[in-house]
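Why does residue order matter? Because the sequence determines the fold. Keep that principle in mind as you read this record.
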Amino acid sequence: MLSQKCKYAIRAVIYLSSDFPEPTKKGGKEISAALKIPQAFTGRILHELSQQNIISSLKGPGGGFYMTAENLQLPILKIIETIDGLSFFKACGLGLEICSEKRPCPIHETFKICRNQMFDLFKTKKIKDIAHDITLHKMFIVR
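Structure:
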């Protein structure tokens, strides 16, 4: 499963991308309040995403976090890789250390299919795709 931190990171990126092509810089407090994420946690997540060039930031007056056209081209998988790593997509569904085709756990076959479908989804779905859906009001991330 994705960690709570990773889910928060994905939501923050989607939130920032939802106003593209007219990106506005948003502060950590604003993002935290809108998404109902603890403020200190939000700041650390945003800093990590910014360091990996998943989101952009500008310091000083008028600064904040925002998305560029380049940021929007990234797949959602890049966020997951940055925050949690990719081990989930290789892990056993029951958390066993040894689980393989030769020595499968009881849910190996079914879990492998689901896990691989999730990997493909996150690898092919770009940030801009989700931003587009939100712009058209098909989907929501804020309550």
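The two ends are 23 Å apart (CA to CA).
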